[in-house]
Write a structure and sequence with these properties.
This protein is an alpha+beta fold and about 1250 residues long. Among the domains are: about 1-95, Methane Monooxygenase Hydroxylase, Chain G, domain 1 (Up-down Bundle), CATH 1.20.58; about 135-200, no CATH class; about 205-300, no CATH class; about 350-390, no CATH class; about 425-595, Cathepsin D, subunit A, domain 1 (Beta Barrel); about 640-865, Roll (HIV Type 1 Reverse Transcriptase, Chain A, domain 1), CATH 3.10.10; about 1045-1205 and about 1215-1220, Ribonuclease H-like superfamily/Ribonuclease H (Nucleotidyltransferase, domain 5, 2-Layer Sandwich), CATH 3.30.420.10. About 40% of the residues lie in helices and about 15% in strands. It has 39 helices and 37 strands. Strand 26 and strand 27 (about 870-875) form a beta hairpin. Helix 6 crosses helix 8 (about 185-200) and helix 12 packs across helix 13 (about 285-315). The longest helix is centred in the N-terminal third of the chain and has 36 residues, at about 65-100. The termini are far apart.
Amino acid sequence: MADIAAKKRVRRGQRGAVTRKIGEAVGLLQAEEPDMAKLEQIGATLEEKKEALRDMDKEIEELIEDEEELVDEICKGDEVREEIKAIISRIDALRTDASSETRGVSAPMTTPTDIIHATPCKVRLPKINLKVFDGDITQWIPFWESYCSAIHDNSQLSDIEKFTYLKSLVEKTAKEAIAGLSLSTANYQQAIEILKRRFGNKEKIVNRHMDLLVGLEGVYSDQKLGMLRKLYDKVETHIRSLEALGIKADTYGGLLCPILIKKLPPEMKLTISRKLSSDEWSTDKIMQVILDEIEARERMDLKGRDEKRGKERETHTGATLFSGGDNYCCYCKAQGHNPESCRRVSSVEERRQILRRVGRCFICLRKGHISSKCRSRWKCMKCKEQHHTSICNKGTQPKKDEKPLNPGATSFTSERATTMYTSPMKQAVLLQTAEAVIRNPLSNQRGHANIIFDLGSQRSYITSQFSRELELRVLGKKSVTILTFGSKEENSQRCGLVKARILTQDQTEVEVTMLVVPLICEPLTKPCIQDCLRKYPHLQKLQLADQSTQEQFQPDILIGSDFYWQLMTGETVKSKQGPTAVCSKLGWVLSGPTETGTDQDISTLVTHVLRVTTESGTKPLDKRLQAFWELEAIGIVDKEEDVYEQFTDHITFEDGHYQVALPWKNPLENIPDNYDLSLRRLNGLLKRLSQDRELFMTYDAIIQEQLQKGIVEEVEEPELIAGDRVHYLPHHAVIRTDKETTKIRIVYDASAKQNGPSLNECLHTGPKLHQKIVDILLTFRSHQVAIAADIEKAFLNISVAPQDRDVLRFLWVADIAADVPQIKVMKFTRVMFGVSSSPFLLNATIQKHMQGFTKQYPYIVPKLLQATYVDDIITGARTETEAEELYTIGKKLLQKGGFNLRKFVSNSSELQKKISQKEIGKEGIVALVRGSQKVLGVLWNVDTDELVFDLRDISREANEISPTKRRVVSTVSKFFDPLGLISPVTVQFKMLFQALCRNKVGWDEPLRGELLQIWNKLAKDLMRVSTVRVPRYYLSQMQGEQSCSYQLQGFCDASKGAYAAVIYLVAKSDSKRITQLLIAKTRVAPLTKQTIPRLELLAAVILARLMSTTQEALSRVMKLDSPRCYTDSEIALHWIRGKDRAWKPFVQNRVQEIRRHVDMEYWNHCAGLDNPADIPSRGQQAKELVGNTLWFEGPKWLGMQDREDVEWEGQLPAECLKELRTKDCSLTCLVGKVSDKKGIASIMDIERYSSI
């Protein structure tokens, strides 16, 4: 065994060397001009390595006795040799190209077609350049046909060689679709199937072509001949593509003809009408008429241009002689600007592709030769290397391992990043720019930098490239919140912090601290500053800080407000015309408008950074608390990008379990290994566990059990990885004494990071496929027979694709009893708890599995899916028979997917006995238990069938702590009431939170004065009530009743401290009528003071939202009549039900939203004393709430009879007029009314208020 291990170590080193050589070869092959001598040397080395590895493999295979291990060894050896052969083949093909080029034969890009024609044909056939497929489904068929002809059907190529070519010919979404598949023979066919399924669907391709036809941009002027030709070509392309799919133009001509006619200029429409009668209209005939007209116009246009050119050759103006003729751009083929100033084609990569396509030199841009044969000595003005300035990458592209300043900001092309400002008078705006020598204070390294001053930025920045040139030492990393132009939200990230010194004119130095960023902005185009000196007298004697004559200005440093005035003296020179000069220690800098005297495009820098703040340790807590009083924070959640399609492409079912791939945000992004961090965290964990021997043994037993079950596996050779990444996860123990089964859970920290992003930051969280907790609980309370269960170790029942397992590595010890434990590397083979994408992968897998049985069980499958939250299933039925069927079928269906449903709990003792008899005695099954059980975090007493809110632990902690803001938040966060059944109690704590923030109380500052009194009062109130109990089943009093109808009735109210909404279920039969509290929602009033009518309107908004959500959830289990909503505010009711008026935006927007959720005819007025929403809007002590029938059952009339809807047209209150827009406030007269009321009634209507 020792001999085998030694040989494997040697082979591992050889394979590592091969991997590095292959990587080096790939880099050379992708270069613009590959170094053939170097490639041939690498090819020879790889050939030797291949033979050496073959011999080593044979020696190791002879020593292996286990058959499975031997098969695995042979497969791995074949894969390595096939990779080597593929690279050698590419080098040979490129060598053939190079030799043909030296013979004077044009050598396009090497493709597999060369291999096809290399051997059988004596005469070398023309090469075919395969077009790269980027995921555009309209291009799939031509790509696939050409790919099949050149590669897929080529018997001379192995599958791994085909796979290599396939990966080089796909990009963007197509590349992402197969990015998770490692380069191997077995994966080639799987990659082809994924691409066919994703992009080869005929129906999708046809729909896409039709969408593009309908969405083509019209041309409405006969003068735009080029656009007319472009429109014709696009329509013709789509028609021919549809014909290739078997869709004739006649089948959709009736739809396309009128759409096409609308996109044409009036004169061409008239021409078509003259040449074709209405009966003759068809796609082919219309296209022919359009083509004839375009060709006729092109002939006339060509003749006119020839005449114009002739005149131009005969006449030369002074301006022409002076300028040397018009500048010509070879990228956009337009006159008037140089190639490096082209704004239509701004991407460097696009420019390079154009040069390759038309055969221009990369140095001088002329045709007829390539850059290696160019005699020009032209060098780039940016980096001084030998290529044209227009295709220079310096300063425009961050390195792969660097992040943009704000990934949340809107993406801008260079055309937008350097915003142009020109006026009819050819006026431009100068920026404050300078040139200076920058010195590294530690190494004395110096460099010349382009500096831009920007008072709109709070911090100063330096590009990472210039920082590396100066070899600046990173002094630390700073967490900053950055908000850039075009961004809707803040982005938090860590930037390196460096110090450098700027040399001034008087030979002194100014030390500045800067944040390192990949790129400050795109290159700026600026007018010639020397022209300003000649043109404006007030500038002529000034020595400028920017003496550059170049048009392009690439900033290396941005000086923000933090160091701006350390470099500026404050002295200015102004004039009525021309820019303003500001004196700095580097010289005078210019800013402001200037006349350019040319048609040159002038760029100005848009405000780069609007706000940068340092994150404090308490900011996450502040953000969490902010949700309590945000006006629009109710039920609004942004959805993440849908990754479900990517999931379905990679899911498989193998060996009784589903296998999935991790949903990477960027399949090609590197991730740090985190080994050092994981090792440090492991050492700390071992020290803690060694203090509790029993816990240590339990922790190790969990890992050993997972190892035996194949959930984790030991990594024998950590240097070898199956995919492209490796990452280690720290872990720790979480102890839960309230759990019946797993009391100790090992939690893996996928958010840990060191020198790069964490695993969670690299993965999509995925769409939230699970149901809302509120919806599940609402339907759970509607079942007479309730049943709850969970899926045993749900996440660990799903396998992770082999290529992704190496990012799920962790460290453990071989023997916990050893004095010096040996560290061993483990990795997960299953989906693990703690990774951000795991809930999505679990829910998506269960959903996909269960949906396969929908036809067989059309009632049960949707019901189970609607009742599933992650690994919990909370459901029920009307009868015990139906509930038992749910249990039997649900358990059977999930077992087929490798999931075990267990821990069944039911309020029915008969059903419990039946299930218990089947479950007890099975391995891994926990018998049914009685008493109180947690259901989605809410305590359910199975015996009494009640939802229980146990306040004892919270009360005990509240009365024992010395209250600070942090401890108050920690204590109160233990309230969990998703249905708002005890919201009158919890809202008082929310209002206290707001008071703490309003008074700017520090997180660790003790409460004093009135705030302390409020806290003590709330804490003592909790001691008086141990529990609050609410019946789980809504309709327990309606059992045996026939022909029941159901209706939702809601109430809303507001006070100066909070606003609230509450909904009741009204059930009625011929002989009985009951009401039950369903759900409530509270919000504290905004920090910005609002009027009571506005707060009443906000209460109506959350009632409308809550009503819509509740109706949607309960409509699955019962038929509901039209809802009713009540408010005691006449003003709010006028806004909702009154005539449409031009209200101010605050009122207008909210009224529109209310009407979208609930029709205005369903809104009515109720007296303040009958409004149960008044209770949570003001808050109530727990002792008083327990016996409050108004809260739990609603007003008395709600349970007695239907209230008739009154045609409500109340008198418009004067307060309503305050919310009218100013231009619509046209009150023309005042009407007085004599009242005979006496006392307080003569001043106010007391019936409008619940309490005074």
